[in-house]
Amino acid sequence: MSGREFFTALPVSEALAGFRPGRRTGTERVGRADALGRVPASAVTSRTALPGFTRSTVDGFAVRAADTHGASEALPAYFEVAGSVRMGAPAAVAVGHGTAVAVPTGAALPEGADAVLMVEHTQQTMPGMIEASRPVAVGDGTVRADEDVAADDVLAPAGRPLRAQDLGLLAAAGTGDVVVRAKPRVGIVSTGDEVVPPETEQLLAGQVRDATASALAGLVIDAGGIPCPRGIVPDDAGVLTRTLEKAAQECDVVVVSAGSSVGARDETVAAVEALGEPGVFCHGLAIKPGKPTLLAQAGEVPVIGLPGNPLSALVVFRLVGVPIVRRVGGVTLPPAEPSTTAELARRVASAAGRLDVVQVRVQDGRAVPLFGASALLSLLTTADGYVVIDESATGLDEGQHVTVTLYR
Ligand SMILES: Nc1nc2c(c(=O)[nH]1)N[C@H]1C(S)=C(S)[C@@H](COP(=O)(O)OP(=O)(O)OC[C@H]3O[C@@H](n4cnc5c(N)ncnc54)[C@H](O)[C@@H]3O)O[C@H]1N2
Ligand code: MOO
Question: Which sequence ranges form a coiled-coil region, renumbered to this chain (predicted)?
C-alpha cells in the first residue's frame, strides 16, 4: 500500500471502499439478556417451526370452511357447538361436519377445523347452537404451524446487530444464547501539549480540556465497541510512537486525535509510519471539516488519525471511523441511521470534489444550516443532525429538499 500526500485529499467514498484492514474480533457466547446490539458471528437458525401448531387469530368458532359456503344474513349456516378449546392446551374436541368449537385468539385449532369464524359473525340461536351469517375461506382466522418461522429458518442473520425484536424472536424460538463477535476494543489517544484531562479545575491560557476522547468514547459505544482510553500524549514523537505501538498491540482499532495537520509539531504521521507495514493508506480526505485525516494499518489493526479540532474529529469519526469499528466487530449489515427530509432554509455553497458536512437544526420541517469555525464544539451540540453535500455538487439551493441524518 502506498502512502499518499496530504494535499492530494482522497474522496471519502474511495477511502471507505479502499481501506479495508482484515482485523476481525473473535467470538464469544452471550445470553439472550445481554445480546442487545451484539453481532451474531453466524446466522442464528430455528430448531423448530413457529408457532409450531395451527393457531386461531380471532375469538370465534373453529369450523370447516366448506360448511359456511353461501352463508348470509338471510340464509345463515347452522352449527352445533361441540365444545371449546382452552388456552395453552391442545384442543380436546374435534370439528366434524356441521360442528363448531369455540376458540379464543391464539388457541390451538382443533382437529378437523380449517378456519375460524369471528364471534361477531355468529349468533347463538339456542344453547349449544350457533348460526354463521358470513362464509369463511380455508385458512381464514388462523396462522399455519410454520407461518411465523419454518424449521431451519434464519432467526437473526450474521453481521446484523441484534435489535429488540430479534431478541423477541430468539425467545419465541427458545434460543437462550448466541455466538457473537467480541466487542472491538478501540484505543483512544489524544495528543498535544495544550490538552489536559477534563478533570482539570483551572486552565492556564492556552490549555484546553480533552473534549475529543470523551465524545469519541460515546461514538465507539454507539458503534458496538469498547472505548479504551490511552490518555493524553505530549508533542513528543518518541512518546507518541510508543503509545501507539502499545495501543496497536492491545486494541482492535486505534484512534489518535490531533497532530495530523502540516504544522511544525505535527508528529502523528511519522509516529504512525513507525508502526510498520502496511503503513499509511491516505493522509488527507476530501471532506470539510476533517481534511487532515490519516488512515493507516499497523499489521491488520486500523489506525485512524483524526483532526485536532474536536468538531472535525467527531464529524470524521462518525462518517469514517464508525464503519471501520463496526466492520472489525463483524457488522456486515449496518443499521440505517435515523433521518428526515427537510427544506433547506438557506443556500449552502460547497466545492466540487469535496464532501461537505453541514450541521443543521430542524425546525418546522426546515433545515437551518449552522455555520461557524470547526473549532467550535457547541455547533455540534446545537445541531439536530447534518446534511451531506456530496463530491459532485457545488452547493445546495435554498428551498431544496435535503436528507438530514439525525443525531440520536
Ligand atoms: N497551515 C494549515 N493549518 C491548518 C490546516 C491546514 O490545512 N493548513 N488545517 C486546519 C484544520 S482543518 C484543522 S482540523 C487543524 C487540525 O490540525 P491537527 O490535526 O494537527 O490538530 P492540532 O493542531 O493539534 O489541534 C487543532 C486544535 O484542536 C485542539 N485540540 C486538539 N486535541 C484536542 C482535544 N483532545 N480536545 C480538545 N481540543 C483539542 C487544539 O488545541 C487546537 O486548537 O489544523 C488547521 N490548521
Ligand atoms: O478539517 Mo478541519 O478538521 O476543517 O477543522
Answer: none
Q: Which ligand is nearest to the CA of 294?
A: 1
The finding on whether 290 has its CB within 6 A of some atom of ligand 2 is yes
Find the 105 Cα to ligand 1 centroid distance in Å.
Answer: 64
Does 16 lie in the same domain as 36? no
Residue 209 grid cell: 480540556
Query: 259 C-alpha vs ligand 1 centroid, how far in Å?
Result: 7
Q: Is the pLDDT of residue 114 over 80?
A: yes
Look up the pTM and report it.
0.92
Do 190 and 310 lie in one domain? The reply is yes
- Domain end call among 328, 355, 375: 328
Task: List pLDDT tens digits, range 83-93.
Answer: 999 999 999 99
Position 35 scores a pLDDT of 98
Q: Is the CB of 289 under 6 A from ligand 2?
A: yes
Asked if the structure places residue 148 within a domain, the reply is no
Number of domains in the chain: 4
**At 121, is the pLDDT very low, low, confident or very high (cuts 50, 70, 90)?**
very high
In a domain, 212, yes or no: yes
Sign of CA dihedral 336, 342, 345, 351: positive
Burial of 365 (0-12, 13-18, 19+ CB in 10 A): exposed
Is residue 233 included in any domain, yes or no? yes
Domain that holds residue 385: 339-406
User: Distance of CA 164 to CAs 21, 56, 169, 180, 237, Å?
Assistant: 30, 26, 9, 16, 46
Among protein residues, the one with the nearest Cα to ligand 2's atom 3 is: 290
Between 2 and 270, name the one with better pLDDT.
Answer: 270
CA of 223 to the centre of ligand 1 (A): 25
